[in-house]
Amino acid sequence: MLPMAAMNPVPLIRAARIRGRVRQLGRELAGAFAGNPGRVPAIVALLDGSFCFVADLVRAIPVPDLRLHFARAASYHGGTVSSGSVTIDALPSCVGADVLVVDDILDTGRTLAAVVAALHAGGAARVRTCVLLDKPARRVPVDGVRLRADFVGFTIPDRFVVGYGLDHDGRYRHLPDVCVLDGVAIA
Ligand code: IMP
Ligand code: MG
Predict the structure, then answer these.
(1) Residue pLDDT, tens place only, 149-180
(2) Ligand 1 atom index nearest CA of 108
(3) How far, in Å, from the CA of 36 to the mean position of ligand 1?
(4) Which residues of 53-68 are buried (b: 16+ CB within 10 A; e: fewer)?
(5) Which of 76, 80, 131 has the most ligand 1 atoms within 8 A of CB, as the residue to mutate?
(6) What does the pLDDT look like over 93-152, one tens digit per residue?
(7) Is residue 143 flagged as an active site residue?
(8) Ligand 2 mean position to 38 CA, how many Å?
(9) To test ligand 1's pocket by mutation, which of 104, 160, 182 has the most ligand atoms within 8 angstroms of CB?
(10) How many C-beta atoms lie closer than 10 Å to residue 144's C-beta?
């Protein structure tokens, strides 16, 4: 861990750009849900990182009805090192549901792969994924597959980012811009 003074959040994606992209995503998602009349879509948002994104996203999806659930998934246990093992808590029952998993960032892909597998195992009819950020350079194969999200806000380079819900050891989630955290090495 570097001394606090060495960590300097530098804006990478400004709040106004995020707002515009979230609005577009909302419209795309409304279209994606429309193919299934009669089935109320279910969003499963992964805490803590997705709290800003999903709060803005759900209000940008112009559909008359949807379900919103929160689950907690963690593959990073503090700092910037991915442990490789994923813990999932409070996953809702989504039997027969058209599910959209929402997360802040797709990094190695282990978290989302584990949540998608658990939802399928729990009987979801369809599972799609939406992330604000995609860091494709960091993806690892999970059961031989490199996960791709169905809906992506922004593709970003291999840098550690914070803000708009993303944290470093619980800090910086409140920043309105997505920022690169200078001085943090990715393990
Ligand atoms: P994955 O399982 O490696 O795809 O990790 C996804 C999770 O790791 C995300 O939900 C984030 O909580 C965390 N994560 C990955 N990259 C970053 C980053 O650059 N900043 C903050 N958190 C990150
Ligand atoms: Mg997270």
Answers:
(1) 999 999 999 999 999 999 999 999 999 999 99
(2) 3
(3) 31
(4) bbebbbebbeeeebeb
(5) 76
(6) 898 999 999 999 999 999 999 999 999 999 999 999 999 999 999 999 988 889 999 999
(7) no
(8) 32
(9) 104
(10) 5
Lining residues, ligand 1, CB within 6 Å: 49, 75-76, 82, 103-111, 160-162, 166
Q: Which single residue is written with the structure tokens 């929160």?
A: 70
107 by Cβ neighbours in 10 Å (0-12 / 13-18 / 19+) ranks as buried
Domains, the chain, in order of start with CATH, read: 15-158 (3.40.50.2020)
Cα 80–132–139 angle (5° rounding)? 50
Q: What are phi and psi of 180, to 5 degrees?
A: -80, 135
Q: Which two tokens stand for residue 87?
A: 């813990």
* Chain-centroid distance, C-alpha 5: 28
Among 103, 107, 134, 167, the one annotated catalytic: 107
Q: Which atom of ligand 1 is nearest to the CA of 147?
A: 4
